[in-house]
Amino acid sequence: MKNLLFIFFCPLIFLYAQQEKKVEDMLFQLTNEEKITMCHAQSKFTSPGVPRLGIPELSMSDGPHGIRPEINWDDWGYANWTNDYVTAFPALTCLAATFNPDLSMDYGISIGEEARYRKKDILLGPGVNIYRTPLNGRNFEYMGEDPYLASELVVPYVKGVQKNGVAACVKHYALNNQEQWRGHINVEVSDRALHEIYLPAFKAAVKQGNAWAIMGSYNKFRGQHCCHNDLLLNKILKKSWGFDGVVISDWGGVHNTDEAIHNGLDIEMGTPSDRSHSKRYPYNSNFLGNPFLKKIIEGDVEESILDDKVRRILRLMMRTSLNKDRPFGSINSKQHYETAYKIASEGVVLLKNAENFLPLDKSKQIKIAIIGENAEKSMSVGGGSSELKPDKEISPLFGIKKEFKNAVIKYAKGYSSNPDEDHDDLRKEALTIVKESDVVLFIGGLNKNNFQDSEANDRKNYQLPYGQPKLINEISKHNKNIAVILISGNAVKTDWKTNVKSILQTWYLGSEAGNAIASILSGEINPSGKLPFTFPESLTDNGAHYFGKLSYPGDGESQYYKEDILVGYRWHDTKNIKPSFSFGHGLSYTSFELTDINSNKKNYSTNETIKISCNVKNTGEFEGKEVVQVYIGKVKSKVNRAKKELRGFKKVFVKVNKSEKTEIEIPVKNLAYYNEIESDWEIEKGDYIIYVGNASNNILDKIIITIT
């Protein structure tokens, strides 16, 4: 075995050594002035190379759901190019809802190909900040509330992007879990919550995914801004995790030259500069520009600190802009649209389906009323830095009309996000067609307007906006056959759910949105998505909100994560608070049975692997996919713990009347908690309960094991 490992790793070690020699050769030829220029921007989305030596600039683009339209060199206006239309992939909440790492790899490869075609060296994504509150305006860009799920999905995404010679820049490191006051709010959180909840996905991206870049976040952590935070960047990221890539600031996230120099930042982007005496921004006046150079020249800062930053930048260039072997990429290809469709359709979550109301029979000549602004509203534009210019975006209304050709379909807006419209007239029009229809498809939810799912501001409340709850309840008085299709990246209050038969959570699905939704409604695709975060019944049922304003959003200066490690379902399970819809929940048009649930043994040492096996039987009338979920909790722990935590999952495809045996492996070392006294991970010995089911609140069997 050792010989095989040597044969496999020896060429990789040789290539890395060659790369490092070239990096050192280039570094030796650079002047200090040239090195300094590489540490800050030269435009809104590029940092400079060194023309004298043929070292190219680095070109960056926002993600993580597609490649952003081209931005002007020196301002935030769009360049209005005609060749920057792209494929809009589903939002990362949808990807998380697939519970499918293979699709995450496909996602990463596809978006990496589009970035490479657009001649981008760095994709600013994916985002893996933890879903702490349903009000966070940027939750739609992230991978849910569970660190294990996010870790399992970020690794293949990163690897897929970087197969194209494009760096994945994982963001926002760290604790950027709200948009309100994001530029200055100081986060206070325990070491346990930091290491067990908020850092694991970043750690996995670095140590397993070999991410080439990390983006710092706007907020402060323990008094220091995260873009130059000694603990996060130097001690944890670079020293403990061995990160050999580049730390890039969020745009405008740098505030201090000394901290930027010494606390782990490598490239400063987006810092406002005084251009009163120049037609172009004088980027060399940034914190890592002339002030940095002055300190080098005067001997206040050792040149080795500058060299470390530039060495990392050159290493990134060797992997990207100086890599002559990287592929050319492609854009808007048939394969990309197929990938977008697969992820979209597999991420849709069936939350409720009373009386098996869905799917609808598309062969019948039924009358369908489609109500809701979101039926025709574009969702790829807006939302902040992740907005896209899609080559195409199929609306739900268009997709449903195409799928249900035999149906008589009428559409009414019903509500509007535009306050200038006559909302009473919209309501009356909707009720008129509802009364004469067999089926009502209410297509609502949130959108990417300000104070909805959007960067820079959080939502103001938990309710559906624009009077949608009232309209849904009013429709139910005239027609009981209602399916609500929620389009959002966040949980919403669903106190209207008893008045409808079915609810689909459909996210922001990108270019293939309408086609994917229509395929689910008709049964062409059997829904298999699972919620990557909890829908609480009320906002105060959420752990972050339970403790009041000092916990969220803070007092304007600081906030305290008082729920500690009990985020999302951990809070609900441990405190016995029933959610509206639980983490991991997702129904199917078929039915599954999990039988013969077993562990390979009952006693384990700390260096062994737990193996959980079970049979998944399809007992219904549709082929489909089920997600087997394994949670583990400690019996009588010496430290505070959640009742149970997700430790393994597997998505299984099963044909009608067939069974599939599946096995999930969980290394015992993954059960460790972070010991704050020792500042290290510790495996607590004793009894543990293994919970096996298909949702965090639907456990089908329990197994007791002992760690010795």
Task: Give a structural overview.
The structure is a single chain. The longest helix has 28 residues, at 2-29. The chain is globular and about 80 Å long. Helix 15 links the parallel strand 13 (439-445) and strand 14 (482-487). The model has no long low-confidence stretch (mean pLDDT 96). It is of the alpha/beta class and 708 residues long. The strands form 6 sheets. Strands 1-2-3-4-6-9 form a 6-stranded mixed beta sheet.
State the gist of this model.
This protein has 708 residues and is of the alpha/beta class. Helix content is 28%, strand content 20%. The radius of gyration is 26 Å and the shape is globular.
Give the SSE layout.
Elements: H1 2-29, H2 32-37, E1 46-47, E2 58-62, H3 92-98, H4 101-117, E3 122-124, H5 147-162, E4 167-173, E5 186-188, H6 191-198, H7 200-207, E6 213-216, E7 220-221, E8 224-225, H8 230-240, E9 246-248, H9 257-262, H10 290-297, H11 303-319, H12 334-347, E10 349-353, E11 367-371, H13 396-403, E12 408-412, H14 423-435, E13 439-445, H15 468-476, E14 482-487, E15 502-505, H16 513-522, H17 543-546, E16 558-560, H18 569-575, E17 592-599, E18 603-604, E19 609-618, E20 624-634, E21 645-654, E22 659-667, E23 673-675, E24 680-682, E25 686-695, E26 698-707
Parallel strand pairs: 2-3, 3-4, 4-6, 5-7, 5-16, 6-9, 11-12, 11-13, 13-14, 14-15, 18-26
Antiparallel strand pairs: 1-2, 7-8, 10-15, 17-19, 19-22, 20-21, 20-25, 23-24, 25-26
Major pleated sheet: 6 strands, mixed
What is the mean pLDDT? 96
Instruction: Supply Rg.
Output: 26 Å
Shape: globular
Report how far apart the termini are.
28 Å
Strand content: 15-25%
- Helix count, DSSP H or I runs of 4 or more residues: 18
